[in-house]
What does this fold into?
Amino acid sequence: MDTVVDMAKAIKIQAKDVNVFYGEKQALNNVSIDIEDRSVTAFIGPSGCGKSTFLRCFNRMNDVIPSCRVEGSIMMGDVDVNSLQTDPVLLRARIGMVFQKPNPFPKTIFENVAYGPRIHGLAQSKTELDDMVEDSLKKAGLWGEVADRLADQATGLSGGQQQRLCIARAIAVGPDVLLMDEPCSALDPIATSVIEELISELQQRFTILIVTHSMQQAARVSQKTAYFHLGTLVEYGDTKDVFTLPKNEQTEAYISGKIG
Amino acid sequence: MNNPIEMIQPDAETQARFEKIAQGLKKRHAASRRLKTYGIMAIVTAISFLAILLTTIISNGYTAIQQTELQITLTIPAEKLQYDDGAIDPVKARNFNWNGLIKKAFLAEFPDVTAMLDQRALGEILSKNAGYDLRRLIEAKGSIPVGETKVWIKTSDDVDMLMKGRLDRNLDEAQRRLSNQQIGWIDSLVADDRIRLVFNDTFFTAADSREPESAGVLGATVGSVMALFVTVLLALPVAVMAAVYLEYFAPPGRVTDFIEVNINNLAAVPSIVFGLLGLAVFLGFFGMPRSAPLVGGMVLALMTLPTIIIATRASIRAVPTSIRDAALGLGASRMQAAIDHILPLAAPGILTGTIIGIAQALGETAPLIMIGMVAFIVDVPATLTDPATALPVQIYIWSDSAERAFYERSSLAIMVLLTFLITMNISAVLLRRKFEKKW
It folds into this structure.
């Protein structure tokens, strides 16, 4: 596996020899990858290839699964994500996550966005909190739709709006990395295109890692693409290269629709 | 039928397969109809048993809602009860022979009854607590009526039973609680309109008594409420914390498995064992007061704990993991995720579980008997450490009493208990509906 790094971009996260086990079963095999700062990196591959598992390594969400064990190192600056000394709470404040199914809290729209800043004690006053909520909703492109009904239940929003609310909720904490686990798989094509545009905008401020089943989506939104197969990273490179000139036969077979 | 289109018929093999399925179909439908019938029969049986039970309780108990009273004309000697300024002297009032006054006035109305034994038989028509009742009446009024006054006095429980038709006049006199002579007197009083049935307010305002006409459920109800208050206060926080720990913090392993198994075991332990535990530990070792609602509540809390833990864990598990992931993904600690998001969503289930557990505890008798809440207590308890009894124990005590009048009172007490239980269960359903969130 050869990694070609564009020297114009700095490295944000460096994963080395990551192995993940569920009990006895190994889900990821020696995955090493360098993630570029302020870019979109897409993880693609057939179901069960370990791409979501790998994504959950970055903010230690695998800790929740009792049988799961993660080995190897993931360095983010000088923070070793996988180290026992690293507090997952602090880590998750730096790395936001958006899940496959929109999962707003069954509370008001305002409360959803305000929850993160509130638990981390980020706002000193009510006005500051209001500003943070407004700012996050604007960044998520939802402000115009919900500005006059912040006190409404979040569960009353449409699926696409809920997912953008989840993005607003994640960025309200002020992370520099965003993890997105198939964020559009539960949405219709129009809502999907809105989210994709949003991802392209957010890329200015955040390092985004996105798991997707749609190769078109990966091609549209990402600068880098990593192809996973059966728990191994098969190919990683610039998106345009991976999609036009795949170096690996498996990658080519997947991209051209022969497998997957 | 003239079908212009030539339809393709399935081949012989398929045809044969269909026919085979069709043959078995009748049997299958019959089986499902049979099962449906069994189900309906089971439900009808259950409902009819319930109806029989309720009918028995109500037909036995409804008469206890009334109490027989007798009108007596008497003159209260004000000078023996008052201070010089006319106010009632409580000491004098307490020492005054009220029973004697009432009996004398009553006997005076039957001048031809002179023999000692006959006079005693006549006096048996009156309640033994008539004097006490009259004193309370006068004290509540605050002034003593001047001259001859007509007052309504409770009759004895035997007269009460006769008036309610629960004493068989045709029975042989020797086997009857009232003699022919007594019944004659009572009939003459009825003819004079001097016997009436009124609402039995004593039943709802008094504690236990040796005399059925003076006995009530208030003492037992207050005792039950106090005990259940202690139960909720102890069991709910402990059970919820235990459930949260087991669901979110306990490392999977042998110790956790052991705890889990034993919580389920605890739920199946007979309640009397908890009573014995309370007797040995709370009374014996810690020297806590006997018959106290505090100890009763503690014992019932032990008994209710596993029920609430199991209900809480089930409702925590029913909260979608996506909510937990959302909170954790934002950097909430496990405790914050549990308290801010999961417990509020699980609250309706926890509430229902708690109310069901408390309802169970309300009906529990055995453990309370072990810690002495079975005592005969004539005062309504005022604090958690006062001796008290509980509703089911009161029912048990009364149903064991010899007097017929206690029998109807125990049925009425059962109705009171059932009212509490049904109210609690309905509120559980309503609260659950109110707080249930949909997403």
